Amino acid sequence: MRTLISTAFISLDGVVEGPGGEPGYRNSGWTFKDVEFLPEAFEIKGREQQEAAAILMGRTSYEAFSPVWPDMADFADYKLMPKYVVSTTLTEDDLVSNWGETTILRTLDEVAALKGTEGGPIIVHGSASLNRALSDAGLIDRYHLVVFPLLLGAGKRLFSATDKDTQKLKLVEHEAYANGLQKNVFDVVR
User: Fold this and answer.
1) Is this prediction's pTM over 0.85?
2) pLDDT category, 126, cuts 50, 70, 90?
C-alpha cells in the first residue's frame, strides 16, 4: 500500500487558495508578499521531491502547474516521476507533452486502486477540492503543512466542512521558524 501525502501552504485559518500568485483570488501570492523568506522553513518542499514516487493532482492544479513546472529547475525531480490527474473532464489531448508520464484518473475509486499498487509515496500538490474529497474518503495518510501566520478570510480551504466522524492525527514532525511559519507533519491515525 502506497502512502498518500497531502502537502500544502496553508494560512492559520485554513486557506490554501492562490499561495503562489494564481489569478482570481484577492490575496493571491500571500506566501511571498507578507512573510519574510527563510530557506530553512521550506526544507520540507525539497525533501518531498526526493521522497515522492508520484504526483497526484486535480484538473485545476494540473492546468496551473503543467505550463510552468516542467521547465523550472526548482521542480526538476517532479519532471521524471509519474503524474496522475483526477478529472472527469480532462482528455489525453489536454495533457502537456514535456512533463513525462501522465495518467488521468476519473474517480476516487481509481485513486484508491493506485494506492494499492507497489511503489513509493504519492504526493498531492495544490488541488483543494481533490484534497477535501480524498480526506472525506479516508484516502490521505499524511499531511505536510507549512502554516503561515496569516488570516486570509475567504478562500478555498484544505479541509471540508462535511459532518463526519472525528479523524485523529498524530504529530510526527514540527518546527517553528523566526518568520512565524510552522512546519507540521501529521500521520492519519487509523
Assistant:
1) yes
2) confident
CB 8 within 8 A of CB 14: no
Query: Distance between CA atoms of 11 and 134, rounded to whole angstroms?
Result: 20
3-state per-residue secondary structure call for 138-154? CCCCEEEEEEECCCCCC
CA distance 116 to 40: 34
User: 181: which 3 cell numbers?
Assistant: 511559519
Predicted confidence (pLDDT) per residue in 30-82, tens digit: 999 879 999 999 999 999 999 999 999 999 999 989 999 999 988 888 888 99
C-alpha to C-alpha distance for 91 and 166, rounded to whole angstroms: 37
Rounded Cα distance between 187 and 104, Å, is 27
Longest dimension (CA), the chain: 46
- The total number of residues shown for the chain amounts to 190
